[in-house]
Write a structure and sequence with these properties.
Elements: H1 14-23, H2 29-39, H3 45-55, H4 57-84, H5 94-107, H6 118-121, H7 125-160, H8 183-186, H9 189-206, H10 214-220, H11 226-235, H12 243-256, H13 265-276
Length: 277
């Protein structure tokens, strides 16, 4: 038996996973509810409520349309969400990926009828307007919230790309990079010019099909570009999320929980091992 995903977890994608699971199964639930009502002498309030919901054909058709919409759009959203929560270095690729994500959200703030599937065409006009508004509002709010969230970091993410020699072409002006913490204070203009005009372009030219190991590149240039090397050493291995910190807090909270008080040390150590896996 496949257990439904738990949407109450703190994973970014947990709610999408849950919706996509139920979207492919919710029509089967009608038979299950009907059989449970037949078998139960005293059905629970929840079961009666579900029966009432499923008996409303208009409501179920609107729900199906929304499920179909999420099934169509959900996988793309999950790809973006999963990318940003990966525990791998991707600070210098984040700006472009974020721009694509924002573009995708913006494109879906206005939805065409064909985006909502065949079930949408079976709805009456009022229901169509309702569903269309719900879907557009979800994307509009998500777009606005994400733009507000990344606004302060957007310029930094755009500028830090330059520490990848393959992306020097954007701008070579020394004054264009004052949003990278420590850049203006540590990096001299002389060192910068050497990087963007000689060392960086040479590394790209000698690379094979544009493939370049950034960590190896910066280690090999540490003596020639000492200050840039120190910055690159931070951002080449940096991840975007604070999820490791959040998971650490969750782990320590579970240890401080009343149920864990008095637990043997071996049990607490096991909890921490599970966290670090």
């Amino acid at each position: 038996m496949c257990i439904p995903p738990n949407p109450t977890t703190k994973s970014w994608s947990a709610w999408f996973d849950s919706v996509l699971y139920h979207a492919s199964r919710f029509e089967r639930y009608a038979d299950f509810i009907s059989n449970e009502l037949k078998l139960s002498n005293q059905p629970s309030d929840s079961l009666l409520r579900l029966s009432q919901i499923y008996s409303d054909e208009c409501h179920m058709q609107k729900l199906k349309t929304q499920f179909d919409f999420i099934k169509a759009k959900g996988p793309t959203l999950l790809c973006y969400l999963n990318y940003f929560r990966m525990r791998v270095p991707h600070v210098m690729e984040a700006h472009d990926k974020m721009q694509y994500f924002l573009l995708y959200l913006q494109q879906n703030t206005t939805i065409k009828s064909e985006d909502l599937g065949d079930s949408f065409l079976l709805l009456d006009k009022a229901s169509q307007e309702y569903v269309k508004n719900v879907c557009e509002t979800a994307f509009t709010k998500s777009d606005a919230k994400l733009r507000k969230y990344v606004n302060d970091a957007a310029q930094f993410l755009k500028e830090v790309k330059v520490l990848d020699p393959r992306k020097i072409m954007s701008s070579k002006l020394y004054s264009s990079y004052n949003n990278i913490p420590g850049f203006c204070e540590r990096v001299s203009e002389e060192e910068w010019i050497k990087y963007v005009t000689i060392i960086g372009p040479e590394a790209v030219l000698t690379s094979v099909n544009g493939n370049l190991d950034l960590k190896q590149f910066w280690r090999s240039r540490a003596n020639e570009l000492p200050c840039l090397y120190k910055l690159a050493s931070i951002y080449c291995i940096g991840t975007l999320g604070s999820y490791d910190v959040e998971r650490a807090f969750s782990a320590y909270e579970s240890i401080l929980d009343t149920n864990s008080q008095g637990a043997p040390l071996s049990q607490l150590e096991l909890k921490m091992q599970n966290f670090h896996q």
